[in-house]
UniProtKB/TrEMBL annotation, chain B:
It comes from Callorhinus ursinus (Northern fur seal). This is Thymic stromal lymphopoietin. Keywords: Membrane, Transmembrane, Transmembrane helix. One of its GO terms (molecular function) is cytokine activity. One of its GO terms (cellular component) is extracellular region. The gene is TSLP. GO terms for biological process: antimicrobial humoral immune response mediated by antimicrobial peptide; positive regulation of chemokine production; positive regulation of cytokine-mediated signaling pathway; positive regulation of inflammatory response; positive regulation of interleukin-10 production; positive regulation of interleukin-13 production; positive regulation of interleukin-5 production; positive regulation of interleukin-6 production.
Length: 209, 127
């Protein structure tokens, strides 16, 4: 059935932040033919052929679609003679949120509140990770909005911070992707740092004359 | 029944706390995305209308969902949070607390529950 072909085609769907949906396949098992991608979003009146194919070794290997909102995508993949696969799914099932930007930090004694702008759709988890320069492992804290407070920090130490967005499985299912991590930010004594370099106590070379 | 006046936030919480696990447990590891053609619902009232129909009204090949734990949870949520909703009469002894001798879960029922999972997910994303 479709499941076997889906495996053979190595189908992958990624919904980039409800902006672009990327469907990719591996046609090598179909003697390198140019597969055709036809699709219809629930808000479309008719089906249409892909207008933005992705090519690999000059054969079609995927399609980029403009996504407008949370809706159902139905598509079919054909070779010259046969319909290989048809599939209909909510595009939210394959969501990859965009990574958090413009992280903001507010220190209060030994706690820090990290904020950033929430994405325009719901049921997400904003994950903040932090570690000091003496830690090897990141520590994690999550919140349903991008306003996460972490306590028990030592304001004197220099800390690394990063953030990403995940989806709630009960609202999006198990096939989504976490966002990429934000850039790492460094903080010490309540101020932004370019990096968390160890201060060298002794210079490397001592000139004895 | 028109589900427009329900307290969607409270229903969503009941879904996340109770109904979601019961639906996943029913599917026993089978992903809802293994079934094609999910049912679309536009807004929370539309989603609840379709959830109620699939949960409580038997279809050909799947006549028994109303007794499942997720159905009991759904009935409780709608009865409590939707003014004037009288709810389905589910005989408590029928409701399966423990799935002892279980009717065979037909693939047709799994397909219906896959629809429910997608509808509940959609409902929780937009309410």
């Amino acid at each position: 059935g479709d499941w076997a072909l889906e495996g053979a085609l190595q189908l992958q769907i990624i919904n980039f932040n409800f902006e672009v949906v990327q469907v990719t396949w591996n046609a090598s098992k179909f003697s390198g033919t140019n597969l055709t991608f036809l699709y219809k979003l629930s808000s479309d009146k008719t089906s249409s052929q892909c207008s933005n194919y992705i090519f690999q070794q000059s054969h079609t290997a995927g399609c980029l679609l403009e996504a407008k909102k949370d809706e159902i995508l139905c598509f079919s993949i054909k070779n010259e003679t046969h319909l290989l696969l048809t599939k209909c799914q909510w595009i939210s099932a394959y969501l990859k949120p965009s990574s958090p930007k413009d992280l903001n930090f507010q220190w209060h004694q030994e706690a820090i509140t990290v904020t950033c702008s929430d994405l325009p759709y719901k049921r997400l988890l904003y994950e903040i990770q932090y570690k000091s320069m003496f830690d090897t492992e990141w520590q994690s804290k999550e919140g349903e909005t991008c306003n996460v407070t972490t306590d028990g920090l030592d304001a004197e130490k220099c800390y690394f911070f990063r953030a990403r967005v995940k989806t709630m499985e009960s609202s999006y299912g198990p096939d989504t992707y976490p966002s990429d991590w934000s850039e790492v930010t460094h903080q010490q004594r309540g101020e932004l740092r370019d990096s968390c370099q160890e201060r060298k106590l002794f210079p490397k070379f001592i000139l004895i004359s | 029944y028109n589900f427009t006046d329900c307290d969607f936030e409270k229903i969503r919480k009941k879904y996340q706390e109770v109904i979601y696990q019961a639906l996943e447990k029913y599917m026993n590891g089978i992903k809802s995305t293994e079934f094609n053609n999910p049912i679309y619902c536009e807004d929370p009232p539309d989603c609840l209308t379709k959830i109620e129909r699939i949960t409580f009204y038997p279809t050909h090949g799947c006549t028994s969902l109303a007794k499942e734990i997720f159905a009991v949870g759904t009935n409780a949520a709608l009865t409590l949070q939707c003014p004037g909703y009288s709810g389905m009469q589910i005989n408590n002894t029928q409701a399966k607390k423990k799935r002892k001798k279980r009717e065979v879960t037909t693939n047709k029922c799994r397909k219906q529950v896959a629809y429910l999972i997608e509808l509940w997910r959609r409902f929780s994303r937009i309410s």
